[in-house]
């Protein structure tokens, strides 16, 4: 995992803890742009969407991760 991803994941985790869900969504999305298979980024993105009331997107993130794991 790159230092970029580690930094952004930490930012996403911290933002979730502070209930700054838009910032968490943005940081997790940036990790996935760089590392599309990053498990933690998928989890943080799904949680951010869930807390933002975007349940459909949260479910899509979950299903995408399951599908990618199945395709390995």
What does this protein structure show overall?
With 72 residues, the chain is an all-alpha fold. It has helices at 3-17, 21-34, 39-51, 55-71. The chain has one domain (3-71). The radius of gyration is 11 Å and the shape is flat. It comes from Paxillus rubicundulus Ve08.2h10. Keywords: Repeat, TPR repeat. This is Unplaced genomic scaffold scaffold_48, whole genome shotgun sequence. InterPro entries: Ski3/TTC37, TPR-like_helical_dom_sf.
Short description:
With 72 residues, the protein is mainly α.
The helix count comes to 4
Number of separate domains: 1
Strand content: under 5%
**Major sheet:** none
| Gap between N and C termini | 19 Å
Low-confidence stretches: none
Give average pLDDT, whole number: 87
> Percentage of helical residues?
over 70%
Q: What structural category characterises the helix and strand content?
A: mainly alpha
How many strand elements? 0
Rg calc: 11 Å
Helix and strand run: HHHH
InterPro entries: Ski3/TTC37, TPR-like_helical_dom_sf
Keywords: Repeat, TPR repeat
GO cellular component, one term: Ski complex
GO biological process, one term: RNA catabolic process
């Amino acid at each position: 995992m790159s230092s970029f991803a580690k930094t952004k994941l930490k930012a996403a985790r911290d933002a979730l803890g502070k209930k700054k869900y838009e910032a968490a969504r943005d940081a997790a999305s940036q990790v996935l742009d760089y590392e599309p298979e990053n498990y933690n980024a998928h989890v943080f993105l799904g949680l951010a969407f869930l807390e933002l009331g975007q349940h459909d997107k949260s479910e899509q993130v979950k299903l995408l991760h399951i599908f990618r794991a199945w395709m390995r």
